[in-house]
């Protein structure tokens, strides 16, 4: 494994996100012979990008082990390995204006990992499609300019499969083809979706709608379009379209699509229980622990598919005095119930054959077994939840 990363140059997008930070820390700590990491940070200027990187990434508690490991040489190590780039995946070539930098990146990059995403289930449709669908295509097109590219890795989501109500359903590890929908009777055209979206925005602006009205209308519109083709929300819909873009346009780019499920805190590396903010089921755990809720509706046979170290989306907060809330809050709770219902009553079983095959292929590698173990069967889940994850929530997320 160390031989693969030795001398390689990596481009990461979505650098300030939780999963990207965990990956970055792991690479810097365990693969110090990596040549360089270009880190794309969304900001208007390079100074603001560098500031975000310092405040939101490298100075976070997650990097304390790495900092201790390098001691007084930490800053020089980071300076040697890291190049922060100001850019946006929703723009062609990330909006980079420095031609010399762009050419240098094209020449050097060997690995691209696209962590960039908006993970709100009911995000405005224009934002979600710009990042999760068109952003993926922009990153792929950038990769095509890199002659030394070895891997393009896309971080998707297991829930592109949509809502599964039959517990006998096996969700296959199969990427979406262009135009494929979850309703066999329909056909999806991404270009047409973009045109309809533009028409919707123009219509709203022609009526002098307020920004708040436009925001809410585009949230509703995203869910409406998702439901039309069988997806439960805007997030899953736009991530599925992102997969379509990759599969259809990848040409000779070596592609890997990762589909994590719900994500929780670190198991033990670099230390147990680290998490940032309340994620997915964490809001339920915390609300229950704080006495804000006494129960939560769900299917008793639903399997909570959690992946350690990875995070997708914050859940709704519940309140004991909900009946005294305003109509606005009631509408929001109602919306959140509809948005999250597919996951609370999810009955499908994910086929993880590819992961199992990878695990078997690396089972005899001592290095992988020691530092890159990803076998969920080796985890005592009750012990992890009670003695690692929940204490981690209290220490890092509720501070």
In brief, what are we looking at here?
By secondary structure, the chain is an alpha/beta fold. It has helices at residues 2-5, 18-30, 46-58, 64-70, 74-81, 99-108, 125-143, 190-206, 211-228, 234-249, 282-289, 327-344, 353-361, 366-371, 381-397, and strands at residues 9-13, 36-41, 82-86, 111-114, 151-155, 170-171, 255-258, 262-264, 306-308, 349-350.
Describe this structure in words.
Catalyzes the reduction of fatty acyl-CoA to fatty alcohols. It holds the Pfam family NAD_binding_4. This is Fatty acyl-CoA reductase. Residues 13-306 form the Thioester reductase (TE) domain. The chain has 399 residues and is an alpha/beta fold. The chain has a domain at 268-399. The protein has helices at 2-5, 18-30, 46-58, 64-70, 74-81, 99-108, 125-143, 190-206, 211-228, 234-249, 282-289, 327-344, 353-361, 366-371, 381-397, and strands at residues 9-13, 36-41, 82-86, 111-114, 151-155, 170-171, 255-258, 262-264, 306-308, 349-350. Strands 3-2-1-4-5-7 form a six-stranded parallel β-sheet, sandwiched between helices. It has a two-stranded parallel sheet with strand order 6-10. It has a two-stranded parallel ribbon with strand order 8-9. α7 runs parallel beside α10 and α9 packs across α10 (234-249).
């Amino acid at each position: 494994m160390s031989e693969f990363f030795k001398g390689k140059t990596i481009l990461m997008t979505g650098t300030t996100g939780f999963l990207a930070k965990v990956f970055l820390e792991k690479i810097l700590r365990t693969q110090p012979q990596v040549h360089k990491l270009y880190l794309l940070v969304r900001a208007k200027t390079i100074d603001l990008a560098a500031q975000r990187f310092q405040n939101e990434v490298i100075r976070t508690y997650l990097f304390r082990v790495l900092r201790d490991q390098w001691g007084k040489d930490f800053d020089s190590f980071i300076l040697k390995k890291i190049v922060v780039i100001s850019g946006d995946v929703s723009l062609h070539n990330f909006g980079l204006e420095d031609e010399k930098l762009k050419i240098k990146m094209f020449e050097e990059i060997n690995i691209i990992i696209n962590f960039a995403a908006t993970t709100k289930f009911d995000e405005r449709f224009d934002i979600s499609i710009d990042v999760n669908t068109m952003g993926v295509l922009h990153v792929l097109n950038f990769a095509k300019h890199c002659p030394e590219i070895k891997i393009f890795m896309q971080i998707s989501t297991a829930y592109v499969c949509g809502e599964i109500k039959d517990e006998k359903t096996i969700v296959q590890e199969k990427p979406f083809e262009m135009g494929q929908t979850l309703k066999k009777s329909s056909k999806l055209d991404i270009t047409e979706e973009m045109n309809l979206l533009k028409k919707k925005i123009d219509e709203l602006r022609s009526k002098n709608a307020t920004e708040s009205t436009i925001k809410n209308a585009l949230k509703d519109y995203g869910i409406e379009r998702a439901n039309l083709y069988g997806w439960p929300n805007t997030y899953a819909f736009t991530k599925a379209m992102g997969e379509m873009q990759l599969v259809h346009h990848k040409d000779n780019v070596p592609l890997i699509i990762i589909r994590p499920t719900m994500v929780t805190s670190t198991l033990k590396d670099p230390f147990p229980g680290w998490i940032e903010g309340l994620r997915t089921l964490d809001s339920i755990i915390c609300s229950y622990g704080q006495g804000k809720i006494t129960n939560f509706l769900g299917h008793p046979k639903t399997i909570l598919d959690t992946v350690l170290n990875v995070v997708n989306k914050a859940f709704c907060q519940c309140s004991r005095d909900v009946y005294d809330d305003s109509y606005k809050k009631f509408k929001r709770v109602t919306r959140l119930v509809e948005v999250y219902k597919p996951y609370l009553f999810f009955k499908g079983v994910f086929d993880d054959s590819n992961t199992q095959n990878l695990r078997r292929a690396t089972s005899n590698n001592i290095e992988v077994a020691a530092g890159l173990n990803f076998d969920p069967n080796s985890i005592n889940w009750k012990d992890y939840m009670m003695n690692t994850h929940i204490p981690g929530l209290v220490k890092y997320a509720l501070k």
